[in-house]
Amino acid sequence: MAALTLQNWNLTIGDGKALFCILGLNVIEDLDLALQTATELKQIADDLKLPFVFKASFDKANRSSINSFRGPGMAEGLKILATVKDKLKVPIATDLHEPFQAEPVAEVADLVQIPAFLVRQTDLIVATARATQKNKGLLHVKKAQFLAPSDCKSILHKIEQAAAPNMTILCERGSAFGYNNLIVDMLAIQEMQKFGVPVTIDATHAVQLPGAKAVEGGGVAAGGRREGVSVIAAAAIAAGADGVFLEFHPEPDKAKCDGPSCLPLSGARALLTRLKAIHAAARA
């Protein structure tokens, strides 16, 4: 498997490389929180000598309720992410939902993420691949909850035809069989690596319980099993994952989005230290 490098930052993910860490917030709440979280995570990653990309979403478009908090929107969100990038000198990851967003997002984000529910949208894939290639970034493509690992070959083929090969990281985040739950098959990691691409584990969203939480007004929201995040992350890294995707918050129970799946920022150092050791042992 060929390793991939974020050219503007000299950060590499793949065989024989350090555990690649995509860490941050579920959604942008405000600039101060983004700076606080990114500063602490950067310090931990620097101390552990782990490649680090700061992630936060400007819009959470896939919500169970129309009343759910979605974020500041693209214009304000990208401004906040650009400020974090400039002040802290860190690469940025964020997701997008529509083709017209590809150009402005790729100008700020070094790692552009395709959400799991949208990976079969050809126009989105093509626009995002071309914009990301133009800006020397990489794609982070989440395997949809309804796809088999082998189905990701078609997604990679679209990207290769639209832009270029060797610019995509695939992400495992569980499979849905209904009943408000997700199941993670660790064998999927090596199945996707057979395509010659690095693979990450989104341990945060893998423990979601979609639509399982009742909310005020009779609606629903995603539940989660926060205690399972470290279990999924450790198991996936032991199974060969090249990177890990984790979301933190200083006060997870007060997070405006997906708090039940979010980890406390205070536990980030201990968890990443453990995951680094598992990554090293798995490749010894």
From TrEMBL:
According to the UniProt entry, what is the EC number of this protein? 2.5.1.55
Keyword Transmembrane helix on this protein? no
Q: Which InterPro entries match?
A: Aldolase_TIM, DAHP1/KDSA, KDO8P_synthase
The protein's predominant localisation is cytoplasm
Q: Where found in the cell?
A: Cytoplasm
Reading the lineage from the top rank, the first entry is Bacteria
The pathway noted for it is: Bacterial outer membrane biogenesis; lipopolysaccharide biosynthesis; Carbohydrate biosynthesis; 3-deoxy-D-manno-octulosonate biosynthesis; 3-deoxy-D-manno-octulosonate from D-ribulose 5-phosphate: step 2/3
User: Would you tell me the Gene Ontology cellular component terms?
Assistant: cytoplasm
Q: Which terms in the Gene Ontology molecular function aspect does this entry carry?
A: 3-deoxy-8-phosphooctulonate synthase activity
Residue ranges the record marks as coiled coil: none
Return the similarity comment. Answer: Belongs to the KdsA family.
Task: Output this protein's name.
Answer: 3-deoxy-8-phosphooctulonate synthase
- Organism name: Ferrovibrio terrae
